[in-house]
Amino acid sequence: DAGVTQSPTHLIKTRGQHVTLRCSPISGHKSVSWYQQVLGQGPQFIFQYYEKEERGRGNFPDRFSARQFPNYSSELNVNALLLGDSALYLCASSPDMGMVEKLFFGSGTQLSVL
Amino acid sequence: AQSVTQPDIHITVSEGASLELRCNYSYGATPYLFWYVQSPGQGLQLLLKYFSGDTLVQGIKGFEAEFKRSQSSFNLRKPSVHWSDAAEYFCAVGGGGADGLTFGKGTHLIIQP
Predict the structure, then answer these.
(1) DSSP label at B82?
(2) What one-character-per-residue DSSP string does A68-87 give?
(3) Are B29 and B14 a contacting pair, CB within 8 Å?
(4) What are the backbone dihedrals phi and psi of residue B64, each rounded to the nearest 5 degrees, phi first?
(5) Comparing B93 with B1, which gets the higher pLDDT?
(6) pLDDT, tens only, B65-89
(7) How close, in Å, is residue B104 to chain A by CA atoms?
């Protein structure tokens, strides 16, 4: 079985633009979480989606949003990009909401904002 | 609020020597604790996790960690490191639910020949 897959692997945008990142969870996993990892820091929780609804959110502005689709895949959207949004964006899936003991991470999307 | 402190930003160890990476956490209830490893440009690989029971947990690649509630610590150990262990190591805490995991800032492990 495939693991958590993310696309694209790398992306370059300019300030003010919008970006969409995609994530496909492990087959059978219904919950998807997104994390931001700035260079030199640990990952920071953005939000968790379960059954197509946002169930929890970290300390991120409303410029960050996401969707979860009926097949449980997810898109992360960031509007009005800032230089500080440059980071590795990690997607993680688990079988059910809050199951951190069965959380699996993808390899991430490296976003560079110029 | 939950938090994780990894006091050592960098650690250099000779190949074959023992390793201990420190992790201290703050959490209001019994925590779920994790150690992850990340190679450059890669995602996170789970090394081991603690939820309850035996406070000494075994993980992959010969790693182990010990949960000490009185010290709020969850230190990672390996008796003999290999050059392939060079990577970034992250300690994380969570309680389940919708709030995700809180990670430390990481410890960069360098292996000397």
Answers:
(1) -
(2) E-TTS-EEEEE-S--GGG-E
(3) no
(4) -145, 160
(5) B93
(6) 999 999 999 999 999 999 999 999 9
(7) 6
